[in-house]
């Protein structure tokens, strides 16, 4: 079982083995956390992403972190919120699961996630937070998974939501 914690920070500043990018399926940059990661990693990140040829929703790809303190960036593509009946929950859970799997294959021990899909993609924060925590808890029962998973919240409101959900009994809600 990994250590899970939530912090309030800019994910581009974290000195961890891998940070996760909430990307789009082109993997060619964008706004939000994606834009911040590309700015901080430098232009070599875009070059590396071009070679990946995109990524379907729910899947993950990995690149070096280049100028970031983090050694790797795991790029995953969250679902756009369409009201909850377009497989959004399963796709969001797949983002967390596939990102952790890919990170583990690269020897990552400490990994930080942003709140995938809860910005531009419009996923309601409470539901997205529950999926993030429950999926990570389930996956990291496997000892081959990263030892420490950090939920990197970009606002005090997001941090309060994560802290509340982490204290709630697993599986409820
Ligand atoms: N560190 C940590 N979290 C951040 C940072 C940061 N530096 N900047 C923003 N966030 P979003 P999405 C938070 O919109 O909803 C992009 O254009 C933000 O407050 O970045 O998955 C992509 O290219 C929010 O909590 O990602 C896609 O087109 C969370 O990161 C699209 O947006 C996710 O918000 C993906 O949308």
Can you describe this structure?
By secondary structure, this protein is an alpha/beta fold. It has a single domain, classed as 3-Layer(aba) Sandwich (Leucine Aminopeptidase, subunit E, domain 1). 36% of the residues lie in helices and 19% in strands. It contains 5 helices and 6 strands; from the N terminus they run ββααββαβαβα. It has helices at 32-41, 43-50, 88-105, 125-139, 156-167, and strands at residues 3-8, 18-23, 60-64, 72-77, 110-113, 148-153. It has a 6-stranded mixed sheet with strand order 1-6-5-2-4-3, with helices on both faces. α3 crosses α4 (125-139) and α4 packs across α5 (156-167). The two termini are 22 Å apart.
Key features of this structure:
O-acetyl-ADP-ribose deacetylase, hydrolase activity, EC 3.5.1.-, Macro_dom-like, hydrolase, alpha/beta, 173 residues
List the helices and strands and how they pair.
Layout: E1 3-8, E2 18-23, H1 32-41, H2 43-50, E3 60-64, E4 72-77, H3 88-105, E5 110-113, H4 125-139, E6 148-153, H5 156-167
Helix pairs in contact: 3-4, 4-5
The structure holds ligand AR6.
């Amino acid at each position: 079982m990994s250590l899970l914690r939530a912090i309030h920070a800019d994910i581009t500043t974290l000195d961890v083995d891998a940070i996760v990018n909430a990307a789009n399926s082109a993997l060619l940059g964008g706004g939000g956390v994606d834009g911040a990661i590309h700015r901080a990693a430098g232009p070599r990140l875009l070059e590396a992403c071009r070679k990946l040829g995109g990524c379907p929703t729910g899947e993950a790809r990995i690149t070096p972190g280049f100028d970031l303190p983090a050694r790797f960036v795991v790029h995953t593509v969250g679902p756009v919120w369409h009201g909850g009946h377009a497989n959004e929950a399963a796709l969001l859970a797949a983002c967390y699961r596939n990102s952790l799997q890919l990170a583990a294959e690269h020897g990552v021990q400490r990994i930080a996630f942003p709140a995938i899909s809860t910005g531009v993609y419009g996923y309601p924060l409470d539901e997205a937070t529950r999926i993030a925590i429950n999926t990570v808890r389930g996956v990291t029962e496997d000892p081959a998974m990263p030892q420490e998973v950090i939920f990197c919240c970009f606002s005090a409101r997001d941090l309060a939501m994560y802290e509340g959900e982490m204290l709630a009994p697993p599986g409820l809600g």
